[in-house]
C-alpha cells in the first residue's frame, strides 16, 4: 500500500528507501513472480510438437501462440503501469499475477486452436505491465549504483521461468498429456499473488501542480516527458531488436533439436532449457559488467552493449548455418549455448538506462514504454518471423537469418549513445529541483 510521505525513510538514489531488509524481501518476491510469469508464458514452446500433431498447425500458427502473449502485454503495459505509478505498485502486481495465473489454468480446458489462442491472449492481459512495474519497484527501493545488476537479475529470472516452463512442459506432456501442463504451472502464481501483498510499497512520487494542471493532466505530462528523451527511443528500439533474436531462439530451439538432431520432445525441451538457463547467467554477468563500466564512464554502457550484440550475431549465424556442415551435434549445441549466453546481454542494462533518463514519478510508466517496444516489436515479432521463414525456407535457415537483428540492435545503441549524457543530465537536474522543493 502507499504510505504517508512522513513514514518513508528519507532517501536518495544513493540509499535504500526503507532499509536493506525491506528492499531484499521485495526483490525476492518480485523475482519469484517473474519466474512464474515466464513459466506460464513459455511452457507452450515444448508442447509445439504435440499441438502440431494433434491439430495439424503450421509453424506460423505455433509461433503465434507465443507472440499473442507479447502483443497483449505490449498494448496493456503502458496504461497499467501509469495506473500503478499513480495508485499502487504492490496491489497492481498482485492483481496481475492473479489474472495471468487463472488464464494459464484456463488453457487446460481448450479444445481447438481458436480457444487456445484466446486463452493465451488473456495470459498476456494479466502479464501486461508486470515487468515494468516490478522493475520500477526494485529501482526505487535500491541505490542507483546497484540498478543495472539488480534489474539484470530480475530479468534473468525470466530465463529461469522459461527454463522451468520448457522443462516441465515437456515432462508433464510425456506423462499426462500436453494440456495438463497448463494446469500444473498455473497454480503457483495464485499463491504468490496473495503473499505479494506483504511487500511494502513506496509512496507515489507527486507531480508538481504545473505538471498535474496541464491539459490532459498526469497522462499528458507522462507522454511529453517520456518521449522528449531520444535516448529512450533508440534504446527501446535497440532492446526490441535484440529480443527478436532471443525470443526466436527460445521459441524454436526445442523444435530445431527435435527436427535436426532427432531428440524426442521431452529431451529437446530439457536441452533447450539448459540454453535458456545459460542465457539467464549471461544476463546477470553482462548486467554486472555494464554496471562496472558505467561506474567509470556512463556513456560506455551503450558501446559495450553494441559490441556484445555484434558478437551475438556472429556466433549464432555461423552456428545455425553449419547445421548440415562439418559441425557435429555436440559442437553445434555448445556454440548455441555460447550464443545463448551472449544474446541476453541487453536485458537488464536497457531497463536501467531507461529508468536513468526518466522522471522519478514515472519510472513504471517509462519502463512500460520499453516493455511496449520489447513485447510488440521484439518478443511478439521473433517467434512469428522465425515461423514464417521456417515455413518458406526451413527452420535451420530461419535461425541463421534471425541473428541479423542483433546487428541492427548494435547500430541503434550507438545512435542512442550520442544523446545519453544530455538526457541523463536533464533527468538529474529535474531530480535536484524536485528534491529542493520537497525539502
Which fold does the CATH topology refer to? Growth Hormone, Chain: A
Number of strands: 0
CATH class: Mainly Alpha
List the uncertain runs: 1-12, 207-219, 432-439
Overall SS class: mainly alpha
Q: Which sequence of SSEs, written as H and E, runs from N to C?
A: HHHHHHHHHHHHHHHHHHH
How many alpha or pi helices?
A: 19
CATH architecture, by name, is Up-down Bundle
Amino- and carboxy-terminal Cα gap: 24 Å
Tally of individual domains? 1
Principal-axis shape equals globular
Oligomer: single chain
Query: Mean of the pLDDT scores?
Result: 82
The CATH superfamily bears the name: MFS general substrate transporter like domains
| Global Rg | 21 Å
Query: Helix coverage percent of residues?
Result: over 70%
List the keywords.
mainly alpha, 19 helices, Growth Hormone, Chain: A, disordered C terminus, disordered N terminus
Polypeptide structure, described:
The chain is mainly α. The chain has one domain (13-199, 214-438): Growth Hormone, Chain: A (Up-down Bundle), CATH 1.20.1250. Helices cover 79% and strands 0% of the residues. The chain has 19 helices and no strands. Helix 7 (147-176) packs across helix 15 (347-356). The longest helix is centred in the C-terminal third of the chain and has 35 residues, at 404-438. It is globular. The model is unreliable at 1-12, 207-219 and 432-439 (pLDDT under 50).
Summarize it.
This protein has a single domain (13-199, 214-438), classed as MFS general substrate transporter like domains (Growth Hormone, Chain: A, Up-down Bundle).
Amino acid at each position: 500500500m502507499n504510505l504517508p510521505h512522513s513514514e518513508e525513510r528519507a532517501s536518495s538514489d544513493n540509499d535504500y528507501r526503507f532499509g536493506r531488509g525491506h528492499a531484499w524481501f521485495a526483490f525476492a518476491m518480485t523475482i519469484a513472480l517473474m519466474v512464474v510469469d515466464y513459466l506460464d508464458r513459455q511452457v507452450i514452446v515444448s508442447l509445439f510438437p504435440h499441438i502440431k500433431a494433434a491439430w495439424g498447425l503450421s509453424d506460423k500458427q505455433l509461433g503465434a501462440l507465443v507472440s499473442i502473449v507479447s502483443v497483449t502485454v505490449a498494448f496493456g503495459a503502458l496504461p497499467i503501469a501509469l495506473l500503478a505509478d499513480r495508485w499502487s505498485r504492490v496491489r497492481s502486481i498482485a492483481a496481475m499475477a492473479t489474472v495471468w495465473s487463472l488464464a494459464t489454468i484456463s488453457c487446460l480446458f481448450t479444445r481447438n486452436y481458436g480457444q487456445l489462442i484466446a486463452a493465451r491472449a488473456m495470459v498476456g492481459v494479466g502479464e501486461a505491465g508486470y515487468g515494468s512495474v516490478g522493475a520500477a519497484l526494485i529501482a526505487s527501493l535500491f541505490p542507483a549504483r546497484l540498478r543495472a545488476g539488480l534489474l539484470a537479475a530480475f530479468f534473468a529470472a525470466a530465463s529461469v521461468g522459461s527454463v522451468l516452463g520448457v522443462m516441465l512442459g515437456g515432462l508433464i506432456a510425456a506423462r499426462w498429456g500436453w494440456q495438463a501442463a497448463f494446469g500444473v504451472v498455473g497454480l503457483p502464481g495464485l499463491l504468490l499473488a496473495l503473499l505479494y501483498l506483504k511487500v511494502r510499497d513506496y509512496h507515489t512520487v507527486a507531480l508538481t501542480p504545473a505538471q498535474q494542471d496541464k491539459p490532459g493532466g498526469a497522462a499528458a505530462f507522462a507522454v511529453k516527458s517520456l518521449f522528449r528523451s531520444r535516448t529512450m527511443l533508440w534504446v527501446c528500439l535497440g532492446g526490441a531488436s535484440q529480443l527478436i533474436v532471443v525470443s526466436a531462439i527460445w521459441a524454436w530451439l526445442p523444435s530445431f533439436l527435435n527436427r535436426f538432431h532427432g531428440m524426442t520432445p521431452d529431451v529437446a525441451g530439457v536441452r533447450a532449457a539448459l540454453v535458456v538457463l545459460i542465457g539467464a547467467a549471461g544476463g546477470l554477468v553482462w548486467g554486472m559488467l555494464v554496471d562496472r563500466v558505467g561506474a567509470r564512464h556512463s556513456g560506455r554502457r551503450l558501446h559495450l552493449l553494441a559490441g556484445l550484440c555484434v558478437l551475438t550475431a556472429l556466433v549464432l549465424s555461423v552456428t545455425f548455418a553449419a547445421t548440415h556442415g562439418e559441425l557435429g551435434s555436440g559442437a553445434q549445441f555448445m556454440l548455441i549455448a555460447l550464443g545463448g549466453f551472449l544474446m541476453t546481454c541487453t536485458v537488464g542494462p536497457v531497463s536501467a538506462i531507461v529508468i536513468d533518463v526518466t522522471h522519478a514519478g514515472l519510472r513504471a510508466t517509462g519502463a512500460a514504454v520499453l516493455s511496449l517496444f520489447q513485447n510488440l516489436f521484439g518478443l511478439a515479432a521473433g517467434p512469428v518471423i522465425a515461423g514464417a521463414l521456417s515455413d518458406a525456407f526451413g527452420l535451420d535457415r530461419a535461425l541463421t537469418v534471425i541473428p541479423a537483428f542483433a546487428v541492427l540492435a548494435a547500430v541503434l545503441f550507438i545512435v542512442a549513445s550520442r544523446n545519453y549524457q544530455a538526457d541523463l543530465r536533464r533527468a538529474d537536474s529535474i531530480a535536484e529541483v524536485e528534491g529542493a522543493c520537497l525539502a
